[in-house]
Write a structure and sequence with these properties.
The chain is an alpha/beta fold and 211 residues long. The protein contains 13 helices and five strands. The chain is globular.
Length: 211
């Protein structure tokens, strides 16, 4: 079974877009196959998230996280042990602590997907040590890939109905769907693909291929 490592940023946005369960299903994953950081619940309750997301969105995200697997301490050695991958990733400040933990955790499995909404992290990854980057190649999933996939699965109108009230949570998605008036399907698809292509350009081979 493929393991999905999911960060809080993309999880919150998919909850706000009312697309989380469909997104997970479209990737061939399940809630039980998803792994989250041990501090995921606490991180969801940070003041910044409370200011940006409604209580309903946060409550739904927390309820979802509580049904996922938690990355174990054996997957994440304590920082005082300073395992080599932490040392190697430490110089890359664009990769935050949560993303670093998720990347380190992937070392324990070969069949995984890394779901992240952090484009700064993606753009920094080609500079990390080659063996770590090689492990991640073809395994990362960005938000735009998921939205494009869901347009294929659910239909453009259904995705628009769900996502439009919450596009302000992500600047790129907001622009893709039309910032002054709703954009037509062809324009939205092209804009989403452009975001995906940008990651392909700066991080060759990183993103997974979605059928």
């Amino acid at each position: 079974m493929t393991t999905g490592f999911i960060d809080n940023d993309i999880l919150l946005k998919l909850v706000a877009f009312q697309l989380l369960e469909e997104a997970i299903d479209s990737l061939g994953l399940s809630q039980k196959s998803l792994q989250v950081l041990p501090a995921a619940r606490f991180m969801l309750l940070r003041n910044r998230n409370r200011q940006e997301y409604s209580k309903d969105v946060l409550d739904s995200a927390i309820a979802f996280v509580e049904q996922c697997q938690t990355i174990t301490t054996s997957q994440l050695p304590t920082l005082k042990d300073v395992p080599s991958e932490y040392k190697q990733l430490a110089p890359f400040k664009q990769i935050d602590a949560g993303e670093t933990d998720l990347i380190v955790a992937t070392a324990n499995t070969t069949d995984f997907l890394l779901l992240s909404g952090d484009k700064r992290c993606f753009k920094a990854l080609p500079n990390i040590p080659v063996p770590i980057y090689a492990r991640l190649k073809g395994k990362a999933i960005c938000l735009e890939q998921i939205i494009l996939k869901l347009i294929d699965v659910l239909g453009f109108e259904e995705v628009c109905t769900r996502i439009t009230p919450a596009t302000h949570h992500d600047k790129a998605i907001y622009l893709c769907f039309g910032y002054s008036r709703p954009a037509p399907e062809a324009q939205v698809r092209a804009a989403l693909q452009s975001c995906i292509d940008e990651i392909h350009t700066v991080a060759p081979g990183l993103l997974a291929k979605l059928s």
